[in-house]
Write a sequence for this structure.
C-alpha cells in the first residue's frame, strides 16, 4: 500500500450501500484514505432515503452520482469491498477483497436504511483499524 491506502466500495447500483460506505470512510478517515465507489449496473441517482439517513449524521451525499465500475478503479485500489455485486466484480491478484453482506436499502423506509447506515459505519471503523488509519471523527 502507498502512504495513503485506497479503498473501492462496489454494489450493483452505486446508489445506496457503496455511497454510504464511501462517505463514512471519507468522513471517518479525515481524508487519510483515498475513497472510490462504483456499481456494476449504476442507477440513475442516489437513493433519496440513503441521502436522508446520512444527512441525519451530518454527512451530505446528495451531490454524489452513481458511477460505473471499471477494471482501472479496481486495479488502482488496495482494498475492494463488494456489497452484493457477485461475479461482476473484476479480480486482480494482489488486491485485497472483502464482501460485506448488507441488506439492500433500495425501496426501503428510513428505519431500515438507518440500520444499514449504522452497520456500514461499524464496518468502516473496523476497516480503518485494519488499515492502521486512526478514525478522526468517531462521533455520531
Amino acid at each position: 500500500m502507498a502512504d495513503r491506502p485506497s479503498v473501492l466500495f462496489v454494489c450493483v447500483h452505486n446508489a445506496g450501500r457503496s455511497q454510504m460506505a464511501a462517505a463514512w470512510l471519507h468522513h471517518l478517515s479525515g481524508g487519510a484514505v483515498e475513497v472510490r465507489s462504483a456499481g456494476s449496473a449504476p442507477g440513475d441517482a442516489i437513493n433519496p432515503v440513503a441521502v436522508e439517513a446520512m444527512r441525519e449524521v451530518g454527512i451530505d451525499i446528495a451531490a454524489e452520482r452513481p458511477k460505473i465500475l471499471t477494471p482501472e478503479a479496481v486495479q488502482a485500489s488496495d482494498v475492494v469491498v463488494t456489497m452484493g455485486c457477485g461475479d461482476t466484480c473484476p479480480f486482480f491478484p494482489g488486491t485485497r477483497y472483502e464482501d460485506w453482506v448488507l441488506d439492500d436499502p433500495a425501496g426501503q423506509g428510513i428505519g431500515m436504511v438507518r440500520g444499514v447506515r449504522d452497520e456500514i459505519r461499524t464496518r468502516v471503523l473496523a476497516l480503518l483499524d485494519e488499515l492502521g488509519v486512526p478514525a478522526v471523527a468517531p462521533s455520531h
User: Anything to note?
Assistant: The longest strand covers residues 6-11. The CA atoms of residues 83 and 101 lie 6 Å apart. The two ends are 29 Å apart (CA to CA). The mean pLDDT is 91.
